[in-house]
Backbone:
């Protein structure tokens, strides 16, 4: 399906050959490789994903991750890649452009050609191993067996005997377990053997690898998830070795400068720190500093667009004028540190972000069609990021763990050239799961509340991307209006970040319209199609948002957080020119954005112009008085002055806590649901819910009931009774179930014309009019079963058609059914479930007659009372039964008390706290009035479809309500 105006497809591509688990078993048997080894290798390469034959960013293919890379083709692609920006991020428009060395292609060798080698071993074309899961698995098994034979080891049934072959699998057949490259991969494979794994792939294949701790224990694998950090590393963390001016290499005998978790076998290969000319100001590739955790707020994720060895060489060339703190190798996830974290690496293209971040580069080539990253990169990177976040106090969220594509341009002229790595195919959901900062599902979008973009990175969500095959991606497109054009001059190019909200980013809900959600983005309402799986509400307590101070029509947005001029003068440091300069963006009155921190940061600037610290006041951190909030402004972060904005609490979830109601209505285009929280004064906006079975019924009616943490809905459509539930913890609706089937309430001989519900304890009673008779079925939720339909008319001795316009409620274990009789009078039937008896009587005799046409009844029980409301000639009348006193009150005119000026066609009622909540339909709109019994007053009628309430929907024909 393609949603109207929403450029993504939800239908999955053709499924692979069925039985992926069976294919592993067959290949393992054919090539005498333990099935568990084959499964574990594949899991660590791809998590058993085929990626529909597309390559990873390092040339891996299909479920076994076999490689096929042409370095010459990579070099040709790099020649047309985007130009480098000034990664120092100074944002100096007068600076002379410098030719920057291009990314180096991967170094050729066997590790780049395991697919061709495997294809030769099984005598199949390489294309088959790229595109067919069975041939990929057969090729991987054959390649493993070949490595075992080359090591002169038997094809043992013992998985522990295959450690060396697994090492060689990773490095393309180099010498076995003594090879440094590949050991980390093998250790992870045997770690997976130890714990086992179960997962369903994006193509619906369910695979299981049983845990085998014995095999892991008997292998040479190192348990990299436990143990103490080596002493040299611990010492380095406490006091990193200081560089001598002019070099990044540690002095002979100095402590190992590696800053890395013990579960990663990291090394240190220094980035260049050298002059490029006689000028001491002309040097690369980072700034010597003395940062502590208080200066580090972000971790920035990059990809190299070059091979590991070539990228390392590039960073060791001082003319590159770029560096990162870490570089990761794809084949085995190996981590190389290049710059000590106390120093400022030049990686982000924004000096503010460089000063306050750690940069992590991931090996990746400019390959045509590349659409995924190796599992080794994800796992090593996530382990490193979690370590850095713990060490420096970086929050585990996507406002602090960001991509290079989310770094703002420091000044307007820099914006266009900012990078977009790691790109649209980096799986932020999986990465944050590994880091431990995944999004927690929440319920109920609230206008002004926070929302997190969270599309599934699976075949269930495949945005249309120019010049790219249909595949999972990590963003949503944004539109000027529901179903309208992309915002700005946006395109469907993967590199165009201007019209995309990326997974994990947090925004403020600006509006809701059906299945379209708007967020404040780039100074406007930006809409995305949202079926409930694309974003999650963030309604945790204590959340805040930013908005312009009262009286300001708009405030400036900045790409960096520099101090004021006076701060530079006080520090004896020349100020950059320009200094505090706004971008061509604004944050207008009424708009709200998510701050990355609730405490503003002071504007700062690290002055380090020379390689040897020879300038006056060189290596000085300038701190000013102006303060900034970092915010999620568009796809990228930005900064606003703390003097221009107010930090205000975000509205919280309408579904939880306090007095609240849920509405269900039928509109001209389908069913909608919304909620109101009277205690908090907020509304959940109307949104579409799943349709019932069969063709749309314009006369469809609903009834609603709160029971525990779920909302139960029952509807009549086309003569059948359906039920569905809404989980109020997740906000999600179930599908509709036809009650007239075996296993539920069972078939009926005549169509249903009316329905009402009531609850006694854990039992929901469904009462219908079918063939003119009253019938009841009950769902016992504690026992998990339905009773079959019973004939209430038969129990009460009622003739066919005796009651219509029915409404039910319950006081404890006594259910009351009210209805209009064939004699035009109101009658009631009561069921006492404790005693197992029914009663029947004429209510009109107790409350008096109604003059006019009665078009509807509604009832609600409160304590020992039942409030009965009747819709008479479009006006509301009320009578109350006090069962403790044994009497009824006469009819009262609610319409007069509420100042009703329009005629109502439908009526629904519920009770919360001390208030009766009335909802009526008039002119296709849903109105609400409230009677406060504690204060003895009624409110007037309010339009629930106004922008400040539940928002606009199509014309309404009926409404149901439940409260708690």
Residues:
């Amino acid at each position: 399906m393609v949603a109207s105006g929403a450029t993504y497809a939800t239908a999955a591509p053709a499924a692979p050959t069925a039985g992926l688990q069976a294919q592993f078993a067959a290949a393992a048997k054919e090539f005498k490789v333990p099935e568990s080894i084959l499964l574990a290798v594949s899991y660590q390469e791809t998590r058993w994903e085929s990626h529909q034959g597309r390559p990873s960013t390092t040339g891996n293919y299909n479920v076994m991750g076999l490689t096929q890379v042409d370095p010459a083709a990579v070099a040709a692609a790099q020649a047309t890649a985007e130009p480098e920006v000034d990664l120092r991020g100074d944002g100096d428009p007068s600076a002379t452009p410098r030719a920057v060395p291009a990314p180096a292609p991967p170094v050729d060798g066997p590790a780049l050609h395991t697919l061709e080698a495997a294809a030769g071993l099984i005598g199949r074309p390489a294309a088959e191993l790229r595109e067919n899961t069975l041939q990929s698995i057969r090729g991987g098994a054959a390649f493993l067996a070949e490595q075992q034979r080359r090591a002169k080891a038997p094809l043992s049934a013992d998985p522990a005997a295959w450690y060396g072959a697994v090492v060689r699998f990773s490095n393309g057949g180099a010498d076995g377990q003594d090879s440094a490259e590949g050991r980390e991969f093998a250790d992870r494979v045997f770690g997976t053997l130890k714990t086992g794994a179960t997962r369903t792939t994006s193509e619906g294949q369910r695979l299981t690898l049983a845990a085998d701790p014995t095999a892991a224990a008997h292998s040479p694998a190192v348990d990299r998830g436990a143990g103490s950090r080596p002493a040299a590393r611990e010492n380095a963390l406490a006091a990193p070795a200081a560089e001598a001016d002019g070099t990044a290499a540690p002095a002979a005998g100095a402590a190992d400068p590696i800053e890395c978790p013990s579960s990663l076998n990291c090394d240190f290969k220094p980035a260049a720190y050298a002059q490029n000319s006689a000028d001491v100001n002309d040097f690369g590739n980072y700034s010597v500093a003395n940062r502590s955790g208080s200066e580090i707020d972000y971790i920035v994720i990059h990809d190299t667009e070059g091979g590991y060895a070539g990228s390392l060489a590039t960073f060791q060339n001082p003319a590159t004028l770029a560096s990162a703190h870490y570089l990761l190798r794809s084949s085995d996830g190996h981590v190389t540190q290049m710059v000590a974290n106390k120093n400022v690496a030049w990686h982000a293209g924004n000096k503010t972000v460089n000063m306050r971040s750690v940069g992590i580069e991931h090996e990746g080539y400019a390959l045509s069609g590349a659409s995924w990253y190796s599992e080794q990169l994800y796992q090593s990177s996530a382990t490193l990021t979690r370590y850095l976040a713990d060490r420096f106090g970086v929050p585990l969220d996507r406002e602090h763990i960001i991509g290079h594509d989310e770094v703002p341009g420091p000044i307007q002229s820099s914006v266009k050239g900012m990078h977009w790595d790691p790109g649209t195919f980096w799986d932020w959901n999986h990465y944050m799961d590994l880091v431990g900062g995944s999004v927690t599902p929440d319920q109920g979008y609230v206008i002004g509340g926070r929302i997190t973009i969270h599309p599934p990175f699976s075949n269930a969500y495949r945005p249309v991307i120019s010049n790219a095959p249909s595949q999972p991606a990590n963003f949503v497109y944004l539109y000027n209006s529901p179903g309208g054009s992309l915002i700005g001059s946006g395109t469907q190019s993967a590199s165009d970040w201007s019209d995309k909200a990326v997974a994990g980013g947090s925004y403020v809900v600006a509006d809701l319209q059906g299945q379209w959600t708007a967020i404040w983005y780039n100074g406007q309402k930006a809409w995305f199609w949202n079926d409930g799986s694309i974003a999650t509400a963030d309604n945790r307590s204590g959340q805040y948002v930013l908005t312009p101070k009262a009286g300001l029509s708009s405030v400036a947005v900045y790409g960096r957080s520099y101090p004021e001029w006076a701060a530079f003068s006080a520090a004896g440091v020349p100020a950059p020119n320009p200094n505090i300069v706004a971008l061509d963006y604004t944050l207008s009155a009424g708009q709200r954005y998510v701050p990355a921190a609730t405490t503003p940061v002071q504007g700062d600037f690290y002055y380090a112009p020379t390689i040897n610290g020879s300038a006056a006041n060189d290596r000085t951190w300038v701190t000013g008085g102006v303060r900034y909030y970092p915010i999620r402004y568009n796809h990228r972060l930005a900064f606003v002055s703390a003097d221009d904005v107010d930090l205000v609490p975000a509205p919280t979830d309408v579904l939880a806590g306090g007095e609240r109601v849920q509405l269900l209505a039928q509109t001209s285009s389908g069913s909608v649901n919304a909620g109101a929280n009277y205690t908090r004064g907020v509304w959940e906006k109307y949104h579409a819910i799943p349709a019932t079975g069969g063709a749309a019924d314009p006369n469809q009616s609903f009834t609603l009931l709160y029971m525990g943490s779920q909302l139960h809905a029952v509807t009549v459509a086309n003569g059948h009774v359906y039920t569905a539930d809404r989980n109020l913890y997740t906000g999600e609706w179930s599908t509709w179930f036809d009650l007239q089937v075996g296993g539920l309430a069972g078939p009926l001989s005549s169509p249903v014309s009316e329905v009402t519900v009531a609850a006694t304890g854990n039992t929901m009673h469904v009462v219908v009019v079918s063939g003119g008779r009253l019938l009841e079925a009950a769902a016992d939720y504690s026992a998990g079963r339905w009773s079959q339909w019973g004939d209430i008319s038969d129990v009460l001795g009622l003739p066919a058609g005796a009651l219509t316009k029915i409404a039910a409620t319950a006081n404890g274990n006594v259910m009351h059914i009210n209805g209009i009789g064939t004699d035009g009078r109101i009658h009631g039937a009561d069921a006492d479930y404790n005693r197992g008896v029914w009663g029947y009587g004429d209510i009109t005799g107790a409350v008096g007659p109604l003059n006019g046409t009665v078009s509807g009844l509604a009832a609600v029980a409160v304590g020992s009372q039942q409030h009965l409301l009747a819709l008479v000639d479009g006006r509301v009348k009320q009578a109350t039964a006090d069962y403790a006193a044994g009497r009824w009150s006469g009819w009262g005119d609610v319409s007069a008390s509420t100042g009703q000026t329009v005629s109502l066609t439908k009526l629904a009622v519920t009770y919360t706290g001390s208030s009766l909540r009335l909802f009526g339909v008039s002119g296709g709109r849903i109105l609400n009035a409230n009677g406060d019994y504690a204060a003895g007053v009624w409110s007037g009628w309010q339009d629930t479809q106004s922008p400040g309430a539940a928002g606009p929907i199509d014309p309404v024909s009926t409404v149901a309500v439940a409260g708690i």
The CA atoms of residues 284 and 318 lie 4 Å apart.
